[in-house]
Amino acid sequence: TGRYVWAGGSCCVYEGGWKRGARHGHGRTLWPSGAVYEGDYSAGFMDGEGTYVAGPCTSTTSSSSSSSYKGQWKLDRKHGHGRQTYPNGDTFEGSWVQGQMEGHGRYTWADGNSYVGTMRNGTMFGKGVLTWSATGDSFQGNWLDGAMHGYGLYTWEDGGCYLGTWTRGFKDGKGTFYPKSCRVPAAHQLYIDDLRNRGVLPDDISTNVLQQQRTSSSSFDTNQEPAAAPADLKKSWRNLSFERPPVKKPSLQRRWSIGVAIDKIIGAHEPSGAGSEPQTQQGSDQNMAGCSSLPILEREYAQGVLISEVVLNKSCLEDSSKKLSRRQSRAAKDVKRPGEMIIKGHRSYDLMLCLQLGISRYTVGKITPIQRREVQASDFGPKASFWMNFPTKGTRLTPAHRAVDFKWKDYCPVVFRNLREMFKLDTADYMISISGSDALRELSSPGKSGSMFFLSQDDRFMIKTLRKSEVQVLLRMLRDYYRHVHTYDNTLVTKFFGLHRVKPSSGQKFRFVVMGNMFCTELRIHQRFDLKGSSLGRSTDKVKIDENTTLKDLDLNYSFYLEPSWRDALLK
């Protein structure tokens, strides 16, 4: 044993065992920053059991003075089982590989939320259970790069649960919803148990698993917190220099209103007047409590959007199955797809062809094959635009087409490409939806701006023409919009997928933006509202009102119930 002080005024000191001129055995190292390690060494490396406590924390966002790791080491890296504490109060206890959280472990956030399951490269990956302490909700299922991905079971505190599939954090595909206080049928419970037995769903994970992983640790004890945060979620399109927590918490799932959802597809049990108030949450709960068998619903989602819903057990509903079937069929026949199909001879036919060609052959066709890169400052602004000529006879880069000669201009293509990836929009789906074999539909403008509106054939995308001044406003706000979407995965703001311009060889310029259609659903929509937060001229002539009428602010006479946690998040 001995004591060694490094020269050059570094004040780095080691006290402990030595072997052949290298630190070996038990020892203690003190760095000038105040960081200290006490534990095992081998051939000069931290190797074995040991505890590292960082020096004073310089982060302005943390009230803690330091951070710590206690566990196993290999070649100066965390390797094996260990416990890490972070300056913000988060902790992780579990398996480490080459300095990264890898394998089974428990991550606990400072607010009490916890994840128990497998990790990869510092993110939730594989099978695991995440529990929200504030609400009591939990999700047990599969994860990919920190997001729910694959089969899973989401359970609410009141006992309701949803069993289905997720794609990168969004419900996607078919699933089954069991409302609160509803006993899961034996056949369905056997199915869930079988999924666990086959490894599709994780077992009920408990802290005993962590206890089995633990081995003897160093006698040096500490309750301090770590020097550096663990790796952020490994999302290649999100490696910007925005400040983020150590491990990103997944977004809370929205709580759908059972009554409203059922009414939309089969109609309310009792008719109500146009001006009647909707049932309050308390009244709805009382009605459902009196029902001996609450409805179990089969739901289908498309990237988080509910598109269809079917009642599996109709025993608690007042109508017979035949009446319900007739009512659903009648409602389906009454649904009229909005807009006018754009066919040859239509006033907007050439404009539609130009738009489809530009998106398929340039916006998607040319930009997508280019290797993806991070957004830079030069990618924003009016100068970050590119154009291409589309003559009718075609060129080496463009195909021959039946529209007029036109020039296509793409604004900030790299930014919008990354935005489409942030919104988890598949490139092929985007191109087929807008530029597929089916024509777009033109909507009559419900506003006073005089803008033209187009709807994709699958109703997923809305295309709106803009004035030059509106394009300039959107370009100025694009940087802040990008930062907002990057920071808030579950944002409710309008989704912008592209900003373009078409200039026919003889004619005016058309500027337009591609947006997500929030009304993309197979459920029957009874009323539509255009809300601007104003009362001046914000009412609709009552004589013209029907199911397809767009109503305004003063026509809205409903009270809406917002789930408390979502209300708090909205007010923040």
In short:
GO terms for molecular function: 1-phosphatidylinositol-4-phosphate 5-kinase activity; ATP binding. The protein has about 575 residues and is of the alpha+beta class.
Would you write up a description of this structure?
Its EC number is 2.7.1.68. One of its GO terms (biological process) is phosphatidylinositol phosphate biosynthetic process. There is one protein chain. By secondary structure, the chain is of the alpha+beta class. It folds into 4 domains: 2-238, Outer Surface Protein A, domain 3 (Alpha-Beta Complex); 258-272 and 282-334, no CATH class; 340-526, 2-Layer Sandwich (Phosphatidylinositol Phosphate Kinase II Beta); 536-572, no CATH class. Helices cover 20% and strands 31% of the residues. The protein is built from 10 helices and 28 strands. The chain has helices at residues 186-197, 208-213, 258-266, 281-289, 321-334, 349-363, 413-422, 427-435, 468-487, 564-571, and strands at 2-5, 13-19, 22-30, 36-42, 45-53, 68-74, 77-85, 91-97, 100-108, 114-120, 123-131, 138-144, 147-155, 161-167, 170-171, 173-178, 297-302, 305-311, 340-341, 385-390, 406-411, 441-443, 453-455, 461-466, 496-504, 510-516, 528-530, 550-552. Helix 6 runs antiparallel to helix 8 (427-435). The longest helix has 20 residues, at 468-487. The chain is globular, with a radius of gyration of 29 Å. 28% of the residues are buried. The model is unreliable at 58-64, 205-292 and 316-321 (pLDDT under 50).
